[in-house]
Amino acid sequence: MASVFGLISRVRKSFNPPEAKPLPDSKPLKFGVLGAAAIAPSALIAPAKSHPEAVVYAVAARSKDRATTYARKHGIEMVFGGPNGYQELIDDPEIDAIYNALPNGLHYEWTMKALAAGKHVLLEKPASNTAEETRKMFELAETKGLVLLEATHYRFHPVALRVKAIIESGELGAVKSTSTTMTVPSGTMKADDIRFNYGLGGGALMDMGRMIFTQMQPCTLMNNLLSDYTINAMRYFAGADPTSILSVEHELRTPQIDRKTVAKFALPGSITSTIVCDLSVPPTFKLIPAMLNFNAHIECERGEIKVTNYLIPTQYHSITVTAGGKSRVEKAYTFPDLGEPWWTTYRYQLEAFVNKVKGRKPHTWISKEDSIKNMEVIESVYAKSGLGSRPKSDYVPPN
Ligand SMILES: NC(=O)C1=CN([C@@H]2O[C@H](COP(=O)(O)OP(=O)(O)OC[C@H]3O[C@@H](n4cnc5c(N)ncnc54)[C@H](OP(=O)(O)O)[C@@H]3O)[C@@H](O)[C@H]2O)C=CC1
Ligand SMILES: O=C1OC[C@@H](O)[C@H](O)[C@H]1O
Known about the structure:
Elements: H1 2-15, E1 29-34, H2 40-49, E2 54-61, H3 64-74, E3 78-81, H4 85-91, E4 97-100, H5 104-116, E5 120-123, H6 131-144, E6 148-150, H7 158-169, E7 175-185, H8 204-216, H9 227-238, E8 244-254, E9 257-267, E10 271-281, E11 295-300, E12 303-308, E13 318-323, E14 326-330, H10 345-357, H11 368-385
Parallel strand pairs: 1-2, 1-4, 2-3, 4-5, 5-6, 7-10
Antiparallel strand pairs: 7-11, 8-9, 9-10, 11-12, 12-13, 13-14
Helix pairs in contact: 2-10, 5-6, 6-11, 8-9, 8-11, 9-11
The protein binds ligand 1 and the ligand O=C1OC[C@@H](O)[C@H](O)[C@H]1O.
Ligand 1 binds next to helix 5.
């Protein structure tokens, strides 16, 4: 019963966090949001409310009416709209940081423009459509001395770091295999969702593969938000990058869009990893709806770790560690010196981003090399599958 009350309390507070008062001796970071995006309320707007040094100050949308409605709903002060709205937001001197929540295929263009204008960027995942574009964005950020972070939010939560710590402690011996899954039932996404649009950088591997890789190397995530996340999880937990792709199978939504991808990899040290991503799992017997699956399974020499719900761990999660015939279940909602049980992955991520911009040490970070490698792996899987990389941006930055 206590755990049900805990769940209700965490969920309630994560959606309606207590508002933090600004700090007297620190100017808050002012964010501008590119796009009246579906993800922004969870990923930035709510988390910023409980952060004493973060304010969501402006939003831009292609339609000014849409931006205005969104701003009213979320208590955002400044609105930009129309064909130049995104650029006008970027050029607003009040704004310190841009949250780029545009479709994947627009990440490169608008991140390059934001960095060129001297803004830090919190960039939605996957970083862009290609590794080359990702490299260029990070190079520009470095040249300009700006912070650029690919929003791989799960990596900032205590669950991911605890799983990694168990693996690295050596308690279970070396990792032998990982399985990470990210799958969602059919009907979760509308037919015109950006994830089904090749031109905008769609596909299950783009959306779910990265996370699964990075997060799930040591664990087997059983979800279909697979590819983007799954690849990220794989590399993170295994602590290594794949040396080869053993197999790729996909089910297509359209000739260029993978609704589902299952890939198997070989990693150094004879590790084998499987990722599963599915944007639309059909109902069993055409009747029984599928469940979300955001799980990971990591087999090691002397035991295993099963992680339930590494992706939205604030709601509930479990880390089940089995060795020598005995099992224990761990929970990790907070760090000893950071966080509240209701902090979401996004709230922990915002904490790190603000600390980095303020010149303080974040509790963890996603490196440039990590983001570039994730895109390389995604592209290599798409190459092996025959579907090919998502289209490069036609934006050419000025010299
Ligand atoms: N970190 C996480 O947990 C999650 C991350 N994401 C990532 O965030 C990004 C946005 O996803 P999500 O919020 O679901 O997406 P939305 O469908 O809400 O689209 C985001 C915005 O893209 C803008 N946009 C600009 N050009 C186009 C176009 N040609 N077609 C459609 N939209 C366009 C729209 O802006 P406007 O308002 O100007 O019309 C829209 O508000 C993606 O990169 C996705 O991978 C998504 C979900 C979860
Ligand atoms: O965290 C996520 O879960 C659902 C996906 O579709 C989304 O893009 C991803 O970032």
